[in-house]
């Protein structure tokens, strides 16, 4: 520890790193406590007292002293005189005056840390810097006199404390003895009579730019001046002194300029109008710039007169022409601009920009116009200065062009094939007429079947049960006409008859209702016929129910026809024969289309005999494309006797079901398949 008492005069003392007692005495002394918790007393004179590190107690005494607590939590007392007391770092207690030494106008700054600052007597200035007190809690007490709180803030901190500063002003005006706590700062104050704010950063510089506006003599143009920087809201003011045009202030720096006063300008002649504007921000910064308006004279309007219409008729008159004139007071302006888009949809325009002479010639596309159809082609022409325009309109009237029909106009089928089809087309230059006229239902019905006709696609289908004797021919025809009636074509279908099994039933309730399609020779044997002896060449074949039955004879047709009839590869039928494919294979079949449910069963009685015992014959069932062998005869057996057969559907659907025989009989004799009691049951 050092104990030092100063003499008269200006002394300088430096404390040790321990706790020292340093007294300056009279004179303007400079005392530094150094390390440790020191006690410093400046005594009389204008002293500078530095606490150093440690928790120090510093008394200024009389005179205008400067006291700095520096580091540590210090107690700093200014004493009499106008003292400057700075707390520095740490949680400090600052007192401007003391009863022992009297008052003075002091400056007190708590510095960083949680500080308690007393102004005491006289008019004191209490300094607070927000940046060094983040998270701290300070209490500032003005005491007697008129005391001023001096806040040092950044612009952002100032914006955040705006509401607090407004509230403090109201608190001061009310004369309340209560404290006022800042919500934005860690500060509470008492006994403050005035507030000053020092901003640590400056407002952005306010700048503005000159503006140029260009418009025609008859125009009104809107524009907005540009400004940047400054603080807060910007206000704009226009100085219209000496202005010739009319300006309307639209607010926010926008304005409208009316140049109608310059109507005396000739085309291309220019005049300028200049005025100023001033931008001011909330801090009072302002800047003035110039707006220059350039007004350009406009052309006088032109007028166009003359022929602006024409007409052409397809295959009669293909061209039209006329003359247009321009009148314009401006020298050299009584001509046209060269037009663009001379090509039309149906022809082409020609136009002389110097003289206004025009013509139109229809092209090949005009042939697409039908009789009575009318369209318009247009060409818009403009005066050289663009102030006037006229539209030339050509009316095109169409005429009918003859149609041509081509394509499949003939077909042929046998009564076993069912249908034949083809396609016709129409060529017609008239748009929308390359089609056929509609047909009445009565025109589609023939003698043995019926035509269907849809946009050139035609089909001829034999009626169910329609028959022609074997080898008998007939022709069915349908005449179709083009949409415009200028062309027609006759579809001709040649029919060749095959022997076809009559529709109906073997006996009521036992045969399919829709009838059968037949390939080859077959017939329904009546009950009376089956009772005649020898009708099956000596075989005693009788119906199982005593009524009628079907007889199929294996003559005339072969396995290839059988495969086409059933829609099955013919090789499947050759595989049924022991000898395979041979030169003397003969076959017959019948089938029809039925709708079944899963589990439905087709039942039937069948009998196969062979008129030539030395030949082989096979009877089969065709169900939904599957060929199923029923039985066969060979050289040792001439017949099978009556057998019961059945087939069950695995799933629901529409299927073809049929029966047939194929044989290898060396070219002589015949085999027969008899069917009876064919039924479907669920």
Automatic annotation (TrEMBL):
Q: Which residues form the RapA2 cadherin-like domain?
A: 290-360, 391-460
Q: Which GO terms describe its cellular component?
A: extracellular region
Q: Which UniProt keywords apply?
A: Secreted
**One Pfam family here:** Cadherin_4
Q: Give this protein's Gene Ontology molecular function annotations.
A: calcium ion binding
Signal peptide (from-to): none
Compartment annotation: Secreted
| Main location as per UniProt | secreted
User: Source organism's superkingdom?
Assistant: Bacteria
Q: Which PROSITE patterns match?
A: HEMOLYSIN_CALCIUM
Identification of the protein by name: VCBS repeat-containing protein
* Annotated source species: Parvularcula dongshanensis
């Amino acid at each position: 520890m050092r104990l030092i008492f100063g003499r008269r005069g200006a002394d300088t003392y430096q404390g040790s790193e321990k706790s020292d007692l340093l007294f300056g005495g009279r004179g303007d002394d400079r005392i530094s406590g150094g390390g440790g918790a020191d006690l410093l007393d400046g005594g009389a004179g204008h002293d500078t007292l530095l606490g150093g590190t440690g928790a120090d107690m510093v008394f200024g005494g009389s005179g205008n002293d400067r006291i700095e607590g520096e580091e540590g939590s210090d107690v700093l007392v200014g004493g009499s005189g106008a003292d400057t007391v700075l707390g520095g770092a740490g949680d400090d207690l600052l007192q401007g005056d003391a009863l022992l030494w009297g008052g003075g106008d002091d400056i007190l700054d708590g510095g960083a840390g949680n500080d308690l600052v007393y102004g005491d007597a006289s008019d004191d200035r209490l300094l607070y810097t927000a940046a060094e007190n983040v998270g701290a809690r300070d209490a500032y007490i003005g005491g007697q006199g008129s005391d001023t709180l001096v806040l040092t803030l950044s612009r952002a901190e100032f914006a955040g404390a705006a509401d607090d500063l407004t509230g403090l002003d109201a608190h001061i005006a009310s004369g309340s003895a209560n404290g006022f706590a800042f919500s934005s700062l860690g500060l509470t104050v008492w006994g403050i009579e005035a507030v000053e704010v020092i901003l640590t950063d400056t407002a952005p510089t306010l700048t503005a730019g000159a503006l140029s506006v260009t418009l025609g003599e008859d125009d009104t143009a809107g524009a907005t001046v540009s400004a940047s920087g400054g603080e807060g809201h910007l206000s704009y003011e226009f100085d219209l002194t000496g202005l010739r045009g009319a300006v309307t202030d639209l607010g926010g720096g926008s304005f409208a300029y009316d140049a109608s006063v310059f109507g005396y300008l000739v085309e291309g002649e220019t005049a300028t109008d200049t005025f100023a504007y001033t931008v001011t921000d909330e801090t009072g910064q302002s800047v003035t710039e110039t707006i220059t308006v350039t007004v350009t004279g406009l052309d006088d309007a032109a007028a166009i007169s003359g022929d602006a219409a024409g007409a052409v008729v397809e295959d009669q008159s293909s061209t039209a022409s006329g003359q247009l004139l321009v009148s314009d007071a401006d020298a050299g302006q009584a001509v046209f601009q060269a037009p663009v888009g001379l090509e039309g949809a149906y022809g082409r325009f020609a136009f002389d920009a110097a003289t206004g002479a025009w013509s139109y010639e229809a092209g090949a596309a005009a042939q697409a116009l039908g009789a009575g159809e009318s369209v318009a082609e247009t060409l818009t022409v403009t005066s050289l200065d663009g102030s006037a325009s006229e539209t030339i309109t050509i009316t095109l009237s169409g005429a009918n062009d003859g149609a041509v029909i081509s394509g499949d106009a003939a077909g042929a089928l046998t009564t076993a094939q069912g249908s034949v089809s083809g396609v016709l087309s129409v060529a017609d230059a008239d748009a929308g007429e390359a089609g056929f006229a509609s047909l009445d239902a009565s025109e589609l019905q023939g003698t043995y079947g019926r035509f269907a006709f849809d946009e050139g696609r035609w089909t001829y289908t034999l009626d169910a049960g329609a028959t022609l004797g074997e080898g008998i021919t007939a022709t069915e025809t349908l005449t179709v006409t083009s949409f415009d009636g200028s062309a027609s074509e006759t579809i001709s279908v040649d029919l060749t008859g095959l022997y076809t099994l009559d529709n109906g039933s073997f006996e009521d309730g036992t045969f399919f209702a829709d009838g059968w399609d037949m390939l080859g020779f077959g017939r329904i044997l009546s009950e009376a016929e089956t009772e005649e002896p020898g009708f099956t060449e000596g075989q005693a074949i009788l119906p199982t129910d005593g009524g009628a039955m079907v007889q199929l004879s294996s003559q005339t047709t072969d396995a290839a026809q059988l495969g086409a009839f059933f829609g099955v590869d013919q090789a499947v039928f050759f595989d049924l024969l022991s000898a395979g494919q041979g030169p003397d294979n003969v076959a017959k079949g019948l089938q029809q289309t039925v709708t079944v449910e899963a589990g439905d069963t087709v039942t039937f009685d069948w009998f196969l005999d062979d008129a030539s015992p030395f030949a082989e014959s096979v009877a089969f069932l065709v169900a939904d494309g599957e060929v199923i062998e029923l039985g066969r005869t060979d050289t040792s057996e001439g017949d099978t006797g009556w057998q019961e057969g059945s087939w069950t559907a695995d799933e629901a659907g529409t299927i073809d079901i049929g029966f047939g025989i194929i044989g290898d009989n060396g070219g002589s004799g015949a085999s027969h398949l008899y069917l009876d009691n064919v039924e479907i049951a669920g």
